[in-house]
Description:
By secondary structure, the protein is mainly alpha-helical.
Amino acid sequence: xxxxxxxxxxxxxxxxxxxxxxxxxxxxxxxxxxxxxxxxxxxxxxxxxxxxxxxxxxxxxxxxxxxxxxxxxxxxxxxxxxxxxxxxxxxxxxxxxxxxxxxxxxxxxxxxxxxxxxxxxxxxxxxxxxxxxxxxxxxxxxxxxxxxxxxxxxxxxxxxxxxxxxxxxxxxxxxxxxxxxxxxxxxxxxxxxxxxxxxxxxxxxxxxxxxxxxxxxxxxxxxxxxxxxxxxxxxxxxxxxxx
Length: 243
């Protein structure tokens, strides 16, 4: 809330003049003015978020003087390239490529293909390495698999969406996560996964779901774990024991 707007004589309040030195307030005044306010631009230009929004909504194009500040913030450098430059921003790439997430989005929506120089960084993040393989390489990324396999969710999705079958190297990691071990058994193995059951049974929710959808009958060994959670024990009794 801007308290100055609620006062009859805001110019008499302490800090009235100083407020315009805040990037957000300076930007909001430019928006209210519906045009550039050169006197306030020095306060906006050094803040990547508000500088990007000023370029997008006030200048409606590139703001050359602000680019050296925007490019150092990976998120807003990506947005600036995508929505203002509408293409590659070569000068900013040395910053963007340092972060797996923004390097992935930059490759996908701006380069629209592999970004070889950024791959040594993207590869280190299992989630974005998997997405890079799926959406950019559109197939297995062998060099990334040692990283992808360490994250149970990414390893499961990589198996299902890219390998389209079992991912043996990732199984030691997947099996220790009850949720993704359950999904792996259900959709990848399409049956019981005996090696993973010792882990799945420890989670009442996924022990119940494993009994219901994979075993499709009572799972006596898991019942001491399921009964620790009243909700899932009730579900188990109603749906599987039926009594």
